[in-house]
Design goal:
Layout: H1 3-22, H2 26-40, E1 48-52, E2 59-63, E3 72-76, H3 90-100, E4 103-107, H4 119-133, E5 141-146, H5 148-163, E6 169-173, H6 185-188, H7 199-207, E7 230-235, H8 241-253, E8 258-263, H9 278-299
Parallel strand pairs: 3-4, 3-5, 5-6, 6-7, 7-8
Antiparallel strand pairs: 1-2, 2-4
Helix pairs in contact: 3-9, 4-5
Length: about 300
């Protein structure tokens, strides 16, 4: 464990997690997340950020340095379906673009404050359809997402395998894939930042009476027809560790090639803290290698 990780984990436990416990409304949570992102989620220099808001869902296009024409990462941001946006994750998007040489497309999907389930899933599908309309090919696209966005991405992946148009690959960072909250690590893991006791409340806000096991909300229960290669990264002490490990098992049972990386001691979605944590850069380098290998393998 780096000294930076030790310090940051201490701050999360003493400051960040208590603040999340005290959050009263989804609107407060969104404002707090935006504020934290401006301070902690560093955006590298020479980042190009364009917004296309002419379609069914606004699409943010991010690059940082040269990108390969026609190759794209469709990334769905996290934030428990009540916070976050392509702007809060701009630093992560830019780093992914720079390390992979692929442009990042980040949909600004609707949050539960304005449109509960299944609006986010519908927007994810609309974003994919928009890429198809623009002439992108499935074999030149890699899906990605973190936390709730990782779950949303995997729900989209299940839908795409059903259609018979899977992407070249997919990666999930600490994904939340089971809104029934049945993972043992939710009760056993020494989680550094997520207030687990508030998760059931978030589920109620988001689902608005829908079934928690609906595969569009909980892709752990989705059917995957011949899924492409998938990379999952999660921390050993995370409350969502079992979501990640069970998702890997489920995808393998469907015939998928899954790489599951359980990193020691890191917090939830530590990759977004590149610029602060050396462990974040190490994980992103492995992630970039996966993306490039997935795209190259299908393109040959």
């Amino acid at each position: 464990m780096s000294w930076q990780l030790s310090v940051l984990t201490f701050l999360m436990r003493r400051v960040g997690k208590p603040q999340l416990r005290r959050t009263r409304t989804p609107e407060d949570a969104a404002r707090n997340f935006d504020r934290a992102a401006r301070h902690w989620f560093r955006v590298p220099p020479y980042t190009l950020h364009l917004v296309d808001d002419q379609g069914a869902v606004p699409l943010h296009w991010i690059s940082s340095g040269p990108v390969a024409r026609g190759r794209v990462i469709l990334f769905l941001h996290g934030g428990a379906y009540l916070s976050g946006s392509p702007r809060t994750h701009l630093g992560l998007h830019a780093r992914l673009a720079r390390l992979t040489g692929a442009e990042v497309c980040a949909p600004d999907y609707r949050l539960l404050q304005t449109a509960p389930f299944p609006a986010a899933f519908d927007d994810a599908c609309a974003a994919w359809d928009a890429l198809m309309t623009r002439g992108y090919r499935p074999e030149n696209i890699v899906l990605g997402g973190d936390s709730a966005g990782g779950g949303l991405m995997l729900a989209l992946l299940a839908e795409l395998t059903r259609r018979g148009t899977p992407p070249a690959g997919a990666f999930a960072l600490s994904p939340w894939v089971d809104l029934t909250l049945s993972g043992d690590s939710l009760r056993a893991a020494p989680e550094a930042i997520l207030p687990v006791e508030r998760m059931a409340e978030v589920v109620q806000y988001y689902l608005h009476g829908a079934e928690p096991a609906d595969p569009r909300a909980s892709p752990l229960f989705a059917n995957f027809a011949a899924p492409p290669p998938v990379l999952i990264q999660v921390g050993s002490e995370e409350a969502l560790r079992d979501d990640a490990t069970r998702m890997a098992t489920h995808l393998r049972a469907a015939g998928g090639e899954v790489t599951l990386e359980v990193w020691p001691d890191v917090p939830h979605v530590w990759q977004i803290l590149d610029g602060w944590l050396p462990e974040a850069r190490q994980a992103l380098i492995r992630l970039a290698d996966f993306v490039q290998t997935s795209l190259d393998s299908v393109s040959r």
